[in-house]
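Collaborator request, handled under Task 6.
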Amino acid sequence: MKVAICGAGNVGTFIAHDLEKAGHEVLVIEKDIELVAKLTPRPRIKWIGADACEVTALQNAGFDTVDVVVAATGDDEDNLVISLLSKQEFAVPRVVARVNHPENMWLFNESWGVDVSVSTPHLLSALVEEAVSVGSLVRLLQFEGGGARLVEVTLAEDSPASSIAISNLDLPRDATIVAVVRDNHLVVPRGDTVLGPGDEVLCLVTNDAEIELQTKLIGQSQIKV
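Structure tokens returned to the collaborator:
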């Protein structure tokens, strides 16, 4: 896989090295020429000194051949511009964008070419909620411009899903249980898997189906954002 990363700060550089170790071809674009000159040459990483907000720079870097673009600069405006150019000008199949300021999260959607947005503060909050919440639906991760998300719920004693097989839950069409963690062990969910109190249930669900999923698993408890 060929991955283009925009921004050679701590985040972008770490991602580049991690992907290189996994055997991927990586190119990193950074507008700070002095920073690029200090970066250590790597066999499968190409460092490019250019402004990723300019179409010509992306063209010269070969964005029409990459599989994934990661907009990882420290500026949300730049990340949005990079995402939009990647999707509209070069039809990049998957665009992942870093959200630096949580209040800008709403902008990172398919209208700006973003397939997946990552907001560290939101993710940390969700992980805290996931660790301490029972009987609440916790949103862990957004996908595809916000149209789908990964959610988690630890079933309470009075969960309407308790002691019922997954095939009998009558889940909404746009929701699916992808994993169950029971007593610190992963259970691959099947139709005959019976859920019980204390089970950590992870689901993929669209925005429209989330309320119905909540009703099936926890009744009317409040969703934790």
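The cover message to the collaborator said: "The chain has a mean pLDDT of 88. Residues 123-218 form a domain with the Alpha-Beta Plaits fold (CATH 3.30.70.1450). Please let us know whether this matches your experimental observations."
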